[in-house]
Automatic annotation (TrEMBL):
Location (main, coarse): mitochondrion
Name of this protein: 4-hydroxybenzoate polyprenyltransferase, mitochondrial
EC number: 2.5.1.39
Annotated coiled-coil segments of the chain: none
Protein family according to the UniProt entry: Belongs to the UbiA prenyltransferase family.
NCBIfam families per UniProt: ubiA_proteo
GO CC entries: mitochondrial inner membrane
Protein function: Catalyzes the prenylation of para-hydroxybenzoate (PHB) with an all-trans polyprenyl group. Mediates the second step in the final reaction sequence of coenzyme Q (CoQ) biosynthesis, which is the condensation of the polyisoprenoid side chain with PHB, generating the first membrane-bound Q intermediate.
Class of enzymatic activity (EC top level): transferase
Pathway assigned in UniProt: Cofactor biosynthesis; ubiquinone biosynthesis; Secondary metabolite biosynthesis; terpenoid biosynthesis
Signal peptide stretch: none
Length: 356
């Protein structure tokens, strides 16, 4: 059902039992642990709607923003100071938190008739009637306004780069109805942050060809990563998706999944390396970010059990931090190295004495 809709929902006693004609639907009980167990009862359905208790999707949306910030920082003229890069990353995280929630709400509005047919999603707030579609639309409006409030904190060019991504957020849920490759559309949406770090740090992509190439390669690299991890995620719903008529790359390539995952991993790392070359990155980036990504993705592809919902979920959640972490650490180390190198005083050449 896609990252934007990732959910292992529990149910709640204060809403009516689900009565759709699906034999696996059961009554809903409230969460007894975690953040949803302590928020006011009236807020719980909205917390469930934005998956506040399942933040992995937020991290996946944030990582490409962090990647582009770290890759762009040394390319800025002058080089962006650490405080500026950190403040930019923090602002991106707040935007990712808001927009991931908005994406989940939009997804559930589109899928309100499909979700009751899938075991994992059958008790989502809109699907079970805890939130009406109208209230969901109003809530989406507030979330989008909050996202816009974050976006306007960035330099003005970011508005022109950021707003078009909304079209992808709105259309992704439709893709799973018409194509076996909705993950590609999800990748286009979830990877948008791989572009945003450059204008956020004052780099004009239209006048800086090296930055434009770096951003394009980083964006396409992240698309490959999104398709890879969401293909693993889609295996959790593969049986229910068949019955519900939902299309996914996991269904299309069910018996060649690991071969496809391997191809995606190679593509991701190759494009990541190309982004580093365009950005003038040093050996630390290629060893840490590219090498680390290749190793961690290889381990995940080898070890993930696609027949096990629990194992797919484990790799989906932890793969975010493992692969996203090594890429970020490599980029950050390269940024620090280049910053220190630039700050070293250069020796002043001795003046030659004038000869008569």
């Amino acid at each position: 059902m896609g990252v934007a809709s990732s959910d292992f929902s529990r149910t709640s006693e204060y809403h009516r039992p689900v009565t759709a004609n699906h034999e696996h639907l059961t009554e809903y009980f409230p969460a007894q642990t975690g953040i949803l167990s302590v928020v006011p009862k009236a807020w719980v359905p909205y917390g469930e709607l934005i998956r506040i208790d399942k933040p992995t999707g937020t991290y996946y949306l944030f990582f490409p923003c962090l990647f582009s910030t770290l890759l762009a920082a040394p390319m800025a003229d002058p080089m962006a100071p650490f405080t500026s890069a950190a403040a930019t990353a923090a602002l991106f995280f707040s935007g990712a938190l808001i927009m991931r929630g908005a994406g989940c709400t939009i997804n559930d509005l589109w899928d309100r008739d499909l979700d009751p047919q899938v075991r994992r999603t059958r008790l989502r707030p809109i699907a079970r009637g805890a939130i009406t579609p109208f209230k969901g639309i109003v809530f989406t409006g507030f979330q989008l306004l909050a996202g816009l409030a974050v976006l306007v904190q960035f330099p003005l060019p970011c508005l022109a780069y950021g707003i078009p991504s909304l079209a992808l957020v709105l259309t992704y849920p439709l893709a799973k109805r018409v194509t076996y490759y909705p993950q590609a559309v999800l990748g286009l949406a979830f990877s948008w942050g791989a572009i945003m770090g450059f204008p956020a740090l004052g780099i004009d992509l239209l006048s800086n060809s090296a930055a434009l190439i770096a951003a394009a390669c980083l964006y396409t690299s992240n698309i490959a990563w999104v398709v890879l991890y969401d293909m693993i995620y889609a295996h959790m719903d593969i049986k229910d998706d068949v019955n519900a008529g939902i299309k996914s790359i996991a269904l299309k390539h069910e018996h060649q999944t690991k071969q496809v995952l391997t191809g995606l991993a190679i593509t991701q790392v190759a494009l990541l390396g190309a982004a580093g070359m365009a950005a003038g990155a040093g050996p630390i980036f290629f060893l840490g970010s590219c090498g680390g990504a290749l190793v961690t993705l290889g381990i995940m592809i080898r070890r993930v059990n696609l027949k096990s919902v629990k194992n797919c979920w484990w790799w989906f959640v932890n793969g975010c931090w493992i692969t996203g972490g090594v890429i970020s650490i490599g980029m950050a180390a390269d940024y620090v190295s280049r910053s220190l190198e630039q700050s070293e005083p250069r020796p002043v050449p001795e003046e030659r004495s004038l000869q008569a």
